[in-house]
Amino acid sequence: MLSRLRGLMGRLFHPLAKALLAAKVSPDAVTVFGTLGVLVTALWAFPTDHLVAGAIIIGLFAFLDSLDGTMARLAGRSGSWGAFLDSTLDRLADAAIFCGLAAYFLLHHEGPTRAWGATAAIACLVIGSMVSYARARAEGLGMTANVGIAERAERLVVSLVCAGVVGLGAPVVVLVVALVVLALASLVTVGQRIATVRRQALAAVVPATSEG
Ligand SMILES: CCCCCCCC/C=C\CCCCCCCC(=O)OC[C@H](COP(=O)(O)OP(=O)(O)OC[C@H]1O[C@@H](n2ccc(N)nc2=O)[C@H](O)[C@@H]1O)OC(=O)CCCCCCC/C=C\CCCCCCCC
Ligand SMILES: O=P([O-])([O-])O[C@@H]1[C@@H](O)[C@H](O)[C@@H](O)[C@H](O)[C@@H]1O
Ligand SMILES: [Mg+2]
Ligand SMILES: [Mg+2]
Q1: What is the pLDDT of residues 151-194, one digit of tens each?
Q2: Which of 63, 74, 195, 208 has the fewest C-beta atoms lying within 10 Å of its C-beta?
Q3: Ligand 2, atom 3: nearest CA belongs to which residue?
């Protein structure tokens, strides 16, 4: 869904991408910097109950994930190394965000909120990784699986906006429910990707002839 905004993001980041390339900054440096920014912020801000600052700063660093690709395409340097680095470091950033949220529930809440919140955050991490794995495996086999209701942009927007809103004073149940729904939506996305790959794989099977 939000991946439709990819083109718009590219146009938005075009001037900054040009300026950074002119300053001899590489797309890989932006990828690494953005990941480190998310990692450090998520593992500091969420476990220490700074939900608003965490959501805003992580959101800003996460946008660098759009800038790196824009820079690579502008420089005519997008390729398999960059694609590998980008996707692999995205998994590290995602792990930090959802582990940070799990730590927030474990350290600052009691009872059912603590149990449901931490479990839902870890479920988002594990099932979200399955979503990404399904796509990576499909692409490794020469197919595509870039479909689904909870792709990475949706997972980040829902988790960060709800964390921010709770930090601003909304009841914590808002974040718990959002994470439970996100884990379920991620599971649906895994199913959608499996169905897409199955269609492609079966269409590629040459039917056996009746001749012996
Ligand atoms: C109360 C409400 C508050 C409202 C807050 C506002 C919320 C914001 C709402 C919406 C924002 C929506 C933005 C999402 C758009 C996402 C579009 C999208 O899908 O973009 C994709 C990007 C990047 O993905 P990817 O890395 O795959 O693409 P690239 O363009 O990089 O291309 C990859 C190829 O490039 C090559 N390459 C790459 C790197 C490299 N080093 N070398 C290379 O060669 C290679 O070929 C690769 O294959 O995804 C994203 O941008 C991630 C999503 C970011 C979403 C951030 C969400 C922030 C939201 C909220 C945060 C703040 C909340 C604060 C709330 C405060 C309290 C109210
Ligand atoms: O597959 P997914 O997790 O929903 O979404 C993402 C892809 O849209 C993106 O191209 C890739 O760089 C990310 O690492 C991640 O895989
Ligand atoms: Mg990127
Ligand atoms: Mg990425």
Answers
A1: 999 999 999 999 999 999 999 999 999 999 999 999 999 999 99
A2: 208
A3: 132
Q: How far is Cα 179 from Cα 130, in angstroms, rounded to an integer? A: 16
Record the tokens describing residue 179, joined without a space: 């994470």
What domains, with CATH codes, occur in the chain?
Answer: 1-203 (1.20.120.1760)
Distance between CA 132 and CA 152 in Å, rounded? 8
Binding residues for a CDP-1,2-diacyl-sn-glycerol: 28-31, 69, 73
Question: What pTM, to 2 d.p., does this model score?
Answer: 0.93
Return the HEC string of the chain.
CHHHHHHHHHHHHHHHHHHHHHCCCCHHHHHHHHHHHHHHHHHHHCCCCCHHHHHHHHHHHHHHHHHHHHHHHHCCCCCHHHHHHHHHHHHHHHHHHHHHHHHHHHHHCCHHHHHHHHHHHHHHHHHHHHHHHHHHHHHHCCCCCCCCCCCHHHHHHHHHHHHHHHHCCCCCHHHHHHHHHHHHHHHHHHHHHHHHHHHHHHHHCCCCCCCC
For 181, phi then psi, to 5°, come to: -65, -40
Q: How many CA atoms lie within 13 A of 23 on its CB side?
A: 10
Q: pLDDT tens digits, residue range 108-141?
A: 999 999 999 999 999 999 999 999 999 999 999 9
For ligand 2, say whether the CB of 68 is within 6 Å of any of its atoms: no
| Side chain identity at residue 68, one-letter code | D
